[in-house]
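PROTOCOL LOG
Step 1. Enter all chains and additional molecules of the complex.
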Amino acid sequence: MTPGRVTLTRRIVFFGSLLALWELTSRSGVWPDYLFPGPLVVGQTLAEGILGGLYLQGAWVSMQRITIGYVISVVIGVVVGALIARNQLLEDTLGALVIGLQALPSVCWLPLAILWLGLNEQAIQFVVIMGSLFSIVLGVRDGIKSTPPIFVKAARNLGARGFALYSQVIVPAALPSIVAGLKQGWAFAWRSLMAAELLFFTLSLGNLLQTGRDFNDAAGVMAVMVMIVALGVAVNQLIFAPIERRIGERWGYATGPR
Amino acid sequence: MTRHLALHLRNVGKTYVSRNRTVEALTPIDLDVAQGEFVCLLGASGCGKSTLLSLIAGLEAPTIGTVIANGAPVAGPGIDRVMMFQDAALFPWLTVQDNVEFALKQAGQGKAERAATAKAWIDRVHLSGFERSAAHQLSGGMRQRVALARSLAINPAILLMDEPFGALDALTRDKLHHELESLWSSTRKTILFVTHNVREAVALGDRVLVFSPRPGRIIGEFHIDLPRPRALEDVSVVKKTAEVMDVLRGALEAAPEELAGAFI
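Step 2. Run joint prediction.
Step 3. Record the structure below.
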C-alpha cells in the first residue's frame, strides 16, 4: 500500500470507531439523549438544517464577515509587519505593542467594540480584525527578519537595490513564514468570529449555536459545530494547503522523500 | 600604472567593534592584482580572507583604507565585482534559468536578451536541460555551476570566490577546477579565490597569498608559474604545495599569541 492509502485507511478506521463509540454511548442511556444525541441524530439534524437552507444561510453570513475582516487584517498586517521588520524604531515601539496585544484573546475586545460601535456588523468585524491582525503582523515581521542574510548579500552583489531587492528577494525569501502567519491569522479570525457571533441576534453560524442552546437542542448545536469544523477544514484544504504545497515544492522542503 | 590593475588596495583593514570587544579581522594590507590575474587567498578559518573579499565586493566598508577596483574607489556593491559563496546561495523561489537571469534583470535587460544570455551560460556550465529545475533538485556541484553561470552572466571584470568548492566531494571539485580554469582562460576575468586547501590554491592560482590567523595579514606570497592546465596530482603542484605548506604551518603554530592579540 502507498503511504497515502495507509493514512486514508487509518483515518477511516479511527473516525469510524469514534462514531461507533459515540453512537453506542448515546444509546447506552448514561446521559439523556436530548443532551447527548448520537451521530445519526446529529447527522439528520445537519441534513435538515442544510436542506432547509438555514445552515447555508448562516454559513454564508459568517463567511462574508470573515472574508471582509480577514482581508482587512491581511492588508494592514502585511504592511505593518513589513515596516516593523525593516525599521528598528517601529520594532522597538509598535513591535512591542503588537506582541503585548497578541496576548489578549480577541473576544476581550467585544465589550469595547459594542460600546464604541454598537451591536452591529462593525463590532463583529472589529473583533475579527483584532483576532487575526497581530499574528499576521508577527508572521510577516518574523519572515522578513529571518531572511537568510546570504540571499540579501548575493542579491545586492548581483545589482539588486531598494524596491527590487525587497520585492524580488526579501519577500519571496520570507514567503513560507508569511504564509504560515496568514494561515494562523485565518484560524484566529475564525475563532474570533464564532465567539463574537454567539452574542449577536442576526442569523449566522455562531448565532445558530446560541439558538441551539436556547431551545435545549443539543443535536442542533452539534450539527452546527460540524458545519464550523467542515468550513474551517475546507478553507484550509482549498486555499492554504495548495499554496503551502507549491511553496514546499519550489523551496524544496516538506514534500516527502526527495 | 594603476590603469592595468584590476584591484589596488592601500592600507585596507577591517576591525569589528561590538559592545564589549574589538576584533581586528584584517590587519591593514596592501594588495595589487593585475587584470586577468588568478589570485588565491590561502589561510585558516577566520584569517580575514573572506572579510577581504567582502570589502572588495563592497558588501562591507573597510575601517581604514580604500579599495580601488577597475580604476574606481569601491563605495558599495557593484556588478563589476561579483562574489560567489561557499553555499551557492541560489534563490530557491527561482528556477535555474531565472537565477542566472537575476543580475541581468536588475540591470534592466530585456526579456529575450537576458533569456538568451542566461541560456548560453547554462550551456557553458554544462547544465542544459536543467533550466526549469529548482535549486534543491540539483547536486552541490550543479548548484555551484549555476552560481558560476549566474555570476558570469552579468560579465563582471572581477570574480570573487569565497571557498566556492569547499563543501564538494573530491571528484566534483576536481571537475569544477578544470571548468573554472577553462572559463577563466577563455574569459580572462580577474579571479580572487579564497580557500584553505593549499593544493587547490597552488593548482588554480597565478599567485598564492598566505594569510596568518586572526588578525589576518599576508605572511607569504608565491608566484605559481607552472604550466596550465594543472591537475591536483601533478608532481610540480605537489612540490609547490609542500613549499607553501611550510609557511602556513609556521603561521599556524604562532596562532595562540596571535589570537590573544586579537582582543584589544
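Step 4. Note key features.
The helical segments of chain B are 49-57, 96-106, 111-124, 140-153, 170-187, 198-204, 235-253, 255-260.
The interface with chain A takes residues 57, 59, 77-79, 82-83, 85, 87, 89, 91-94, 102-103, 105-107, 134-137, 150-151, 154 of chain B (CB under 8 Å).
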